[in-house]
Description:
The structure is a homodimer of 290-residue chains. Chain A is globular. The first copy, chain A, has helices spanning 18-27, 49-66, 76-93, 101-111, 123-128, 130-138, 151-158, 164-174, 195-201, 210-225, 245-252, 272-277, and strands at 8-12, 33-37, 70-73, 97-99, 116-121, 143-148, 183-186, 206-209, 237-241, 264-265.
Amino acid sequence: MPTRDLPIGVFDSGVGGLTVLASLVLRLPGEHLLYLGDTARVPYGSRSPETVLRYAERVAGHLLGRGIKALVVACNTATTWALPALQATGRARGIPVVGVIEPGVHRALATTKSGHVAVIGTEGTIRGGRYTALLQEQRPDLRVDALACPLFVALAEEGWSEGPVAALVAEQYLGPLRGGADTVILGCTHYPLLRSAIQAALPGVQLVDSATATAEATAALLAREGLLRRADQGGQARFLVTDNVERFERVGARFLADPPRGAEVVDIDDADHVTWHAGPARAGTHRSGQ
Amino acid sequence: MPTRDLPIGVFDSGVGGLTVLASLVLRLPGEHLLYLGDTARVPYGSRSPETVLRYAERVAGHLLGRGIKALVVACNTATTWALPALQATGRARGIPVVGVIEPGVHRALATTKSGHVAVIGTEGTIRGGRYTALLQEQRPDLRVDALACPLFVALAEEGWSEGPVAALVAEQYLGPLRGGADTVILGCTHYPLLRSAIQAALPGVQLVDSATATAEATAALLAREGLLRRADQGGQARFLVTDNVERFERVGARFLADPPRGAEVVDIDDADHVTWHAGPARAGTHRSGQ
């Protein structure tokens, strides 16, 4: 069973989930955080559901092997395809698992006045349709538009979040949404970096960023389970990646005020994901001299 | 040992290598072609050298297990980090291995009049420095500029190869090259799709596309080894992917006049790459009901 002083595991396919990590640091300053970016297999957004599930189970298995008290799936695509499976296993082990979609959905429902919401995200997230399904499950009369904006991720990672290219790309994607929804969910953890370009293309629209909503949901869950550390105890963030530390630290610096440093490369290519299903917890092997 | 009627294996991390496949079809209409897009692990361009080598050896091992008479590494990043290893093993098995970089280098050297060449490509290809090293090995007084243009891949895959966004991105990247090199190598197999936007940003510059040069080099090599089929025998192209057939066929249609169809999903996650090193040739397991 998890104990209070274990870190919260946070995972994403790459650097995008760092926007969620930043919100967790702000909301839960007493918590240790263990972030894993699956940079050997990024991006998840264009992969098939089975592949995303397989990768997500491996990553979750690795974090579990290291010891965590809760798991935050800080990736919309992984939440779309893998959350139910991860939550089922988490329940059996007493580890709460939080995704990024449901908190964003609740915030959007509380925000919209017109009853017309839009969600933008990667191909995988939009094709998965989880946002639309959850929104309309809560409020069947809601009108929902869903739109994939794949180039936004490349722009954010290139450091072109502002300027003429971001403005033009935002206009091409979002122009057709103008005059429609009064609330737009940023359904990809990269998109908060493009917030000003997105807002400029959609003046007057309320943008919902799941990161802060997810941090709030995580805090509530830990409180309910009696697993919260006190804020004044302080917390540390540590970083794991499956490939290319140099790029993770360089691109990650665009996502955090305090850039990620000292990231460690781990190899989760093997059968680690099996441990998430059933076997005893086992730490993944660290890559050595490959 | 390979026989004449076996297919030529062609591999890339995803759809980009289809520009090379198209050139092979034109130059060698009598050949069977077996294309493998490693779409479960695309893109290679932002991965570390060790990871690219590992992935490339797996893919090569899988193609070898199916039976090929030659291997074309239709990916600049894989050529950068894995070609020497793949060629060494290929030699031991009598399988010629061709990369995309050397043919492009030779064509650029034959094209430049001013002795000033530029190469554009992914982060991995540019960081790897193979183009610059080979160009200056052949001609030490050559001036070479090298520039990573990561957004071009996302633009080509999104189908935004032409229009205002492509023009603006090309201008941002390539504006600084104007008035410099007289010859620019398209050092990424995606870039031929953006040819008109690139040419508009660099008027008067000669663009070198490695795809046709690679097809020419492959033809010469097969002729030397006595492995060519006659053009009038006709040839077939077959497609393998490691993930997401739907996306491969949809995005691949932007790369080929005759869109790729009937692609088969193969699972090369396991120890297939071992066969490329040493063991007996073995076909990879096909994914079933995962």
